[in-house]
């Protein structure tokens, strides 16, 4: 468990150690939002009374929260990182160096691991909005709120393991349902719609563009 939220930066989505950079917040978020989505094809043909709901995919999960930066000296900071005495502009620059700035070694922003309590989230920063909320008389900011959103970023092998899809190395017998197309079926089983011609030949399909619901097809192992 970690008392304070920590964000560590890495050069790849395998998150090989050690981290390139890291930052620890002084004021933990009051809350965070962990969002999951499922996308469906909801397009309705012209003149149709409705359409079957068809699964399209699951976009990456997102995490969002607010981080507060403070330079008033009123917030107690750990002895090893007295950032409460550092100007707000410098604090935000250090944060952006970890999460936001372009990394010339990988030609994109850093990969990140957010670690706080039971939360461990491998991701990239997707948006950052900074609001300055308290100022000295001369206009120098003393406090700021950064609204951050992060999108899950993992490698293809991990995605496949999490999805736990059926192995494409086995022969599958499936029944055609209303709205199915051969590319859609191949994408569902193999993860690649381009195998539709091979499946059509394997099943001796003359008109693979018009699949009849209830028809059974064999999907052979792929090489």
Description:
The two termini are 45 Å apart. Strands 2-1-9-10-11-6-3 form a seven-stranded antiparallel beta sheet, covered by helices on one side. It has helices at 88-99, 156-163, 182-190, 196-202; strands spanning 6-10, 21-24, 32-35, 39-41, 54-57, 62-70, 102-103, 108-109, 111-116, 119-135, 141-152, 172-175, 216-219. The chain contains four helices and 13 strands. It has 223 residues and is of the alpha+beta class. The protein folds into two domains: 6-159, Elongation Factor Tu (Ef-tu), domain 3; 166-219, Membrane-bound Lytic Murein Transglycosylase D, Chain A (Roll).
CATH architecture name of the largest domain: Beta Barrel
General shape = elongated
What's the total count of β strands?
13
Largest sheet: 7 strands, antiparallel
Counted by DSSP, the helix tally is 4
What are the segments in which pLDDT stays under 50 over at least 5 consecutive residues?
none
Q: Looking across the biggest beta sheet, what order are the strands in?
A: 2-1-9-10-11-6-3
Helix proportion = 10-25%
User: How far apart lie the N and C ends?
Assistant: 45 Å
Number of domains: 2
What average pLDDT do the residues reach?
Answer: 85
What is the CATH domain class of the largest domain?
Answer: Mainly Beta
Order of helices and strands: EEEEEEHEEEEEHEHHE
Class per helix and strand makeup: alpha+beta
The fold-level CATH name of the largest domain is Elongation Factor Tu (Ef-tu), domain 3
Oligomer: single chain
Radius of gyration: 25 Å
Percentage of residues in strands: 25-35%
């Amino acid at each position: 468990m970690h008392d304070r939220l920590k964000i560590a930066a890495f050069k790849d989505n395998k998150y090989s150690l050690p981290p390139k950079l890291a930052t620890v917040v002084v004021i933990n978020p009051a809350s965070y939002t962990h969002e999951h989505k499922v996308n469906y094809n909801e397009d309705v043909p012209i003149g149709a009374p409705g359409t079957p709901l068809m699964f399209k995919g699951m976009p990456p999960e997102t995490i969002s929260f607010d981080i507060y930066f403070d330079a008033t000296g009123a917030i107690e900071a750990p002895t090893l990182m007295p950032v409460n005495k550092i100007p707000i502009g410098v604090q935000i620059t250090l944060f952006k160096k970890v999460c936001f700035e372009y990394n010339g070694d990988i030609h994109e922003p850093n990969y990140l691991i957010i670690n706080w309590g039971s939360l461990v989230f491998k991701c990239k920063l997707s948006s950052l909005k900074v609001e300055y909320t308290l100022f000295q008389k001369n206009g120098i900011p003393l406090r700021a709120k950064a609204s951050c959103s992060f999108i899950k970023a993992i490698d293809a092998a991990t995605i496949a393991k999490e999805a736990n899809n059926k192995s494409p190395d086995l022969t599958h017998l499936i029944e055609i349902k209303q709205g199915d197309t051969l590319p859609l079926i191949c994408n569902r089983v193999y993860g690649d719609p381009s195998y539709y011609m091979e499946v059509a030949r394997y099943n001796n399909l003359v008109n693979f563009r018009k699949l009849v619901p209830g028809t059974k097809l064999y999907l052979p192992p792929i090489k």
